[in-house]
TrEMBL record, chain A:
Name listed for the protein in its UniProt record: ABC transporter permease
Cell compartments where the protein resides: Cell membrane
Gene Ontology CC entries for this record: plasma membrane
Family membership noted in the UniProt record: Belongs to the binding-protein-dependent transport system permease family.
Residues annotated as domain ABC transmembrane type-1: 93-304
UniProt-listed PANTHER family: INNER MEMBRANE ABC TRANSPORTER (PTHR30465), OLIGOPEPTIDE TRANSPORT SYSTEM PERMEASE PROTEIN APPB (PTHR30465:SF0)
Topology within the bilayer: Multi-pass membrane protein
UniProt cross-references to PROSITE patterns, sorted A to Z: ABC_TM1
UniProt keyword Signal present: no
Pfam families: BPD_transp_1 (PF00528), BPD_transp_1_N (PF19300)
Automatic annotation (TrEMBL), chain B:
Annotated keywords: ATP-binding, Cell membrane, Membrane, Nucleotide-binding, Transport
Keyword ATP-binding attached: yes
An example molecular function term from Gene Ontology annotations: ATP hydrolysis activity
UniProt record, GO biological process: peptide transport
Transferase keyword on record: no
SUPFAM superfamilies documented for this protein: P-loop containing nucleoside triphosphate hydrolases
UniProt family annotation: Belongs to the ABC transporter superfamily.
Cellular component annotations (GO), alphabetically ordered: plasma membrane
Protein name according to UniProt: ABC transporter ATP-binding protein
TrEMBL record, chain C:
GO biological process, one term: transmembrane transport
Residue ranges annotated for the ABC transmembrane type-1 domain, each copy included: 99-297
Subcellular location: Cell membrane
A Pfam family recorded for this sequence: OppC_N
SUPFAM superfamilies linked: MetI-like (SSF161098)
Family per record: Belongs to the binding-protein-dependent transport system permease family.
Protein name per UniProt: ABC transporter permease
Keywords: Cell membrane, Membrane, Transmembrane, Transmembrane helix, Transport
Keyword Cytoplasm: no
Length: 318, 332, 310
């Protein structure tokens, strides 16, 4: 187990280094930058700023400088917002996390319940209905369903606010503040849950169907246990075991925000921040964000591997 | 008849609907088990003996199989198991009728500790508290001859050998003091030395508790060792039944005779082991006939036209074979 | 019990290994597919959408794409079933024309990424060694970078390079394949690795067959079912990705219409709130097409995959 983790860690670091160099080069090759695009600046001022930000140096040297700072926890300075990238992330990331955590919770809750029931009643009309809904959820264009629900629920029926995290100009505090946030969260959470639920339900249903055919389920029934106990104690535990690996894969989504959903719902999260900065070509921030997601992705993958080994008693001892 | 039967199956039919047609896995099987008696069902794999057991337990149609019970009665004490609702059936399963299976390695849940799996029926049926159930589970582990029961209770199935797991399965089965234990090929997956231990254990528990055993096996050695009464099945039907000594000494049905002949005998070297010629018929292509006629050395014209019924022959036994019907006619 | 059901299943799987029996395997698959009503419904919708987009415009009197000021922003009516847009063009005709592009981009990028992914995956899995190391490390690297930002960067590069709008759709195809081949390669490699170990491949080695013959005659035919399934599910994903890119103005750009860039009109507050006929029809077209493809693809998986259903 120890050598396994060390090896994984080494490989992970190598991949991360390569990925960050690739990302850095891509952003560097993208023509245009924040300074060039700013028409308010005189050519002299532009040249001066380039010098300050070190944009005149060769690519590899710039990458080296960036890396040196990054290793010290400094992801650079946002040109558009005039704040350190790290500070900005810290400011926005928790809004993203709130949205993602709540929708992940609902996604798993609903997917487990529906997946178990559909597997238990395989080939029933309920199961067929679930399958169709699963495919529907997997086939939704995220930005379109977001717009569509805003149009129906917020614009036409006025049930929920169309976007943002707080009503413009609101200075609510305490419970009133919380209530306002919850009302604003409802629509994006519904959409994100809807988008996530398809593949997870399908996965859990598939696992449950496999597990229900196992000999130990027959034993559990032969012991005269209640069906509920057979399903939830005996079958679900085994069906969820491989799903533990998915927890790791959720990591980038939990902290990395959702570019599309946050943009559509004008949610002040890190994904929305990225979309804004992309238009402005605010490279330090774009770079920081992309590397952050890459880090979360590799950590998540590694976490999945380790979690699986910890959770499964059969692998645990080997 | 001295005592009332514990279990009486009458005309049980269990069918599987497949894309190619209906497979009559169990086709009008009748048998009885008396209190304290060991009945063996013998036959080749696929003859329907396991499905008969699963039908008694009400487990047909679960585990992703498409089987259904098409007819018959399964009377246990004074109840018809096929007419009980799910709840009533569940209070009998694992409590009054328990079952152990062929594959101990896969029959226990890999992610639950052994102890918990033994505790479950104790809590469910005997309404023991968790603490009492744990104490009883450890006792049971000791009772099936496993050392260090406390540690074993905390272990997971993959940490134990197949023989130990089958002992655990027996511990689970006897935990609630069942009146009938169904053992479906309990020793097939185990080493020969372990097989004898498991069989001894079953005999010992039977002697201590007056429980009946319905033992399903293809191994005539096991039958000789365990059975009071034997039921021979072929292609979903009972072809012969009788007291064990009578059946071994004077097998009537050509199939039983073949089975006994193909069993190697200790101390006798044969140049060639006997095997019954031919193959089990395709279950989808069965026509009204004796299903064994293609392989039978005594096959007659009537055998391929009509199905023989199970008729009493001799003291206790019955056989379904035209040879004996003819005899009956001839000797009037 | 298992002998009975198991026996039936085996006789269905076994012929796959012998070329003589292969045609009957395909026939069996087709028969099974015909029984799957859901998959057939999916296939029907897919065919319908293709027919609508490729044949439909031939019957439309509004294909000239001329600007008609008098017909600006008309709500759906008898002459224009889905209304008209800000330039007075017929929305239904635009949706059909956009569908041509969206479906073409989806199909072409699927073909390209399945080709790339299966070729590289098969090479990695079959030859192992250095080829495997290089290919899979590159795949790992590309999978580490989040795909949406990657697509955005590539899209931005396109914009800055002033690629003519007519050619953008081809480059969008390339971009989509570029981000989706690593996942496919990984899947194909896994399958090849397990196939290598199977008896019939070892038999081919024992018979002394040449590498190329083993690869093309014995290995690839066994990959075909997996590839068909991957391909069908990949089309849906490609259509969705294209729509996202085009919606954000980084994919195919107007005047070339695609379903994604038609929904762009929802970014205009008045169009969004008061003229839903401009952006809802293309959105539903994407949804209907992708769900139909996914359902059909899943039906194919059930039919072609000898392994138990998931």
């Amino acid at each position: 187990m120890g050598t396994f983790i060390t090896k994984r860690l080494l490989y992970t670091i190598l991949i991360l280094l390569a990925a960050s160099l690739l990302i850095f080069s891509l952003y560097a090759w993208t023509p245009g930058d924040f300074i060039t695009g700013n028409i308010k600046l005189t050519p002299e001022r532009k040249a001066e700023l380039r010098e300050i930000y070190g944009l005149n140096k060769p690519l590899l040297e710039r990458y080296g400088i960036w890396m040196k700072h990054a290793l010290h926890g400094d992801f650079g300075y946002s040109m558009a917002q005039q704040k350190p990238v790290f500070t900005l992330f810290n400011q926005y990331i928790w809004n993203s996390f709130l949205l993602a955590a709540v929708s992940t919770f609902f996604t798993w809750l609903i997917a487990v319940i529906i997946g178990v029931v559909a597997a238990y009643r395989q080939y029933s009309w309920f199961d067929t209905l679930v399958m169709v809904v699963i495919f529907a959820a997997m086939s939704l264009p995220s930005f379109f369903i977001g717009l569509f629900l805003i149009k129906i629920l917020a614009v036409d029926w006025k049930w929920l606010p169309p976007g943002g995290m707080l009503t413009t100009g609101s200075n609510a505090t305490g419970m009133a503040y919380a209530e306002e946030v919850v009302r604003h969260m409802a629509l994006p959470v519904i959409v994100m849950t809807l988008l996530g639920i398809g593949s997870l339900t399908r996965y859990i249903r598939g696992n449950m169907i496999d597990v229900m055919k196992q000999d130990y389920i027959r034993t559990a029934r032969a012991k005269g246990l209640k069906e509920r106990q057979v399903l939830f104690t005996h079958a679900l535990r085994n069906a969820l075991l491989p799903a533990i690996t998915l927890v790791g894969f959720e990591l980038p989504a939990l902290f990395g925000g959702s570019l599309i959903i946050e943009k559509i719902f004008n949610w002040p999260g890190i994904g929305q921040l990225y979309m804004q900065s992309f238009g402005l070509r605010d490279y330090p921030l774009l770079m920081g964000f992309t590397v952050l997601i890459a880090i979360l992705t590799v950590i998540g993958t590694m976490l999945s591997d380790i979690l699986y080994r910890v959770a499964d008693p059969r692998v645990r001892l080997q | 008849m001295a005592t009332a039967d514990l279990l009486e199956i009458e005309g049980l039919s269990t069918y599987f609907d497949t894309e190619e047609g209906t497979v009559r896995a169990v086709d009008g099987v009748s048998l009885r088990v008396r209190p304290g008696e060991t009945v063996c069902i013998v036959g080749e794999s696929g003859c329907g003996k396991s499905i008969t057991a699963m039908s008694i337990m009400g487990l047909v149609g679960t585990n992703g199989t498409a089987g259904r019970i098409a007819g018959g009665r399964i009377r246990y004490e004074d109840r018809d198991l096929l007419r009980l609702n799910k709840h009533e059936l569940r209070t009998i399963r694992g409590h009054e009728i328990a079952m152990i299976f062929q594959e101990p390695m896969s029959s226990l849940n890999p992610v639950l500790p052994i102890g918990e799996q033994i505790m479950e029926p104790l809590i469910e049926h005997l309404k023991l508290s968790k603490k009492a159930a744990r104490a009883r589970a450890i006792e049971l582990i000791a009772q099936v001859g496993i050392a260090r029961p406390e540690q074993i209770a905390k272990a997971y199935p993959h940490e134990l050998s197949g023989g130990m797991l089958q002992r655990i399965m027996i511990a689970i089965a006897i935990s609630c003091g069942p009146k009938l234990l169904i053992a479906d090929e309990p020793t097939t997956a185990l080493d020969v030395t372990i097989q004898a231990q498991i069989l001894d254990m079953l005999r010992q528990f039977k002697a201590e508790s007056d429980m009946s055993i319905l033992l399903i096996t293809h191994d005539l050695g096991v039958v000789a060792e365990m059975a009071d009464y034997v039921v021979v099945m072929y292609a979903g039907k009972v072809v012969e039944e009788g007291e064990v000594v009578e059946l071994f000494e004077r097998p009537k049905h050509p199939y039983t005779q073949g089975l006994l002949k193909s069993k190697p005998i200790m101390g006798q070297r044969q140049d060639e082991l006997y095997s019954i010629p031919g193959q089990v018929p395709n279950p989808l292509e069965l026509k009204p006939s004796c299903y064994f006629y293609e392989r039978c050395e005594h096959a007659m014209d009537v055998c391929r036209r009509a199905e023989p019924t199970l008729k009493g022959v001799g003291e206790q036994g019955s056989v379904a074979c035209w040879l004996y019907e003819e005899e009956a006619i001839v000797h009037g | 019990m298992s002998t009975i059901t198991g026996g039936v299943a085996e006789s269905e799987v076994a012929p796959a290994k012998r070329p003589l029996a292969r045609s009957s395997l395909w026939r069996l698959a087709a028969r099974k597919l015909l029984k799957n009503k859901l998959a057939l419904a999916g296939l029907f919708v897919v065919v319908f959408m293709f027919a609508l987009c490729f044949i439909g415009p031939l019957f439309s009197p509004y294909t000239d794409n001329k600007i008609h000021m008098a017909l600006m922003n008309k709500a759906p009516n008898l002459k224009h079933w889905l209304g008209t847009d800000a330039l007075g063009r017929d929305v239904l005709t635009r949706v059909m024309q956009a569908g041509r592009i969206s479906l073409t981009v989806g199909l072409a990028s699927m073909v390209l990424s399945v080709f790339l992914g299966s070729l590289l995956g098969a090479i990695a899995g079959y030859y192992r060694g250095i080829a495997d190391q290089v290919i899979m490390r590159i795949a790992d690297l590309l999978m580490t970078i989040p795909s949406l930002p990657l697509l955005f960067i590539l899209g931005a590069l396109l914009s800055e390079w002033k690629v003519p709008t007519d050619y953008r759709m081809y480059i969008v195809m390339l971009m989509l394949s570029f981000v989706s081949w690593p996942g496919l390669a990984r899947m194909v490699r896994g399958e090849v690795l397990s196939l290598r170990e199977r008896e019939f491949m070892q038999a081919a080695t024992v018979l002394g067959l040449r590498d190329r013959r083993k690869l093309f005659k014995h290995l690839l035919p066994n990959l075909v079912p997996l590839l068909i399934v991957i391909a069908s599910l990949n089309v849906g994903g490609a259509i969705l990705s294209e729509s996202v890119l085009s919606f954000f103005g980084l994919g195919v750009m107007p005047p070339t219409p695609t379903w994604g860039n038609m929904i762009d009109s929802a970014n205009n507050l008045i169009d969004f709130q008061q003229r839903p006929w401009l952006w809802i029809p293309p959105g539903f077209s994407i949804f209907a097409t992708v769900i139909a493809i996914n359902i059909f693809g899943d039906g194919l998986r059930d039919v072609l995959d000898p392994k138990p259903k998931k």
